[in-house]
Amino acid sequence: MSTAEQPTPGKRRGRRPGGQDTRAALVAAAREVFSESGYEGATVRAIAARAGVDAAMVNHWFGGKEGLFAQAVLQLPFDPIQLLSELLDGPVDDLGKRIVRRFLTVWDATDGGAFPALVRSIASHDQAALSLKDFLIRHVLENVVGRVSPDRRELRATLCASQMVGMGMARYVAKFEPFSTTDVETLAAAVGPTLQRYLTGDID
């Protein structure tokens, strides 16, 4: 066999190898497919095909569709502990504005990131709703409320969450104009006082 006819070493053909690049490809593909189809409509086969890998890799890396959903959709671009510290760093009277500003700034950086996939999946999958509640209400907002409010911690946190999820839907999923393109500071000034009342004001 001549040199020209010999196969070039190191080149791979077909599907991706089962390494970290496969995991990253599955996460990226899952975000797209969950966003397009929601949890129930998204299949492991469709996600794997989008990623260019064997469907068995989903079980290998994530233990199934549930695990992949948790990693792809709920893996948020910030650390909850650091976020809590940032939100509480400043005057209590400006806390509502800081919350709006911080969340929109984070989501705007990725044009909503995984938020559309999460919202579309909530309607069809109980675990998605429970996961959102666990993160947004229990890990973030209830901790914030517990530092600044004397009463009704869970209700106040839930009211704040309703505002935040509503903003996310209007800005990144439904893309209502002019809300979806209004600058963050304008929205923080407009929506922040509502969150402030939920946090520290009279809600009776």
TrEMBL record:
It comes from the Bacteria. The lineage of its organism: Bacteria, Bacillati, Actinomycetota, Actinomycetes, Pseudonocardiales. This is TetR family transcriptional regulator. Pfam families: TetR_C_16 (PF17920), TetR_N (PF00440). Residues 20-80 form the HTH tetR-type domain. The keyword DNA-binding applies. Residues 43-62 bind DNA. Keywords: DNA-binding. Residues 1-21 are annotated as: Disordered.
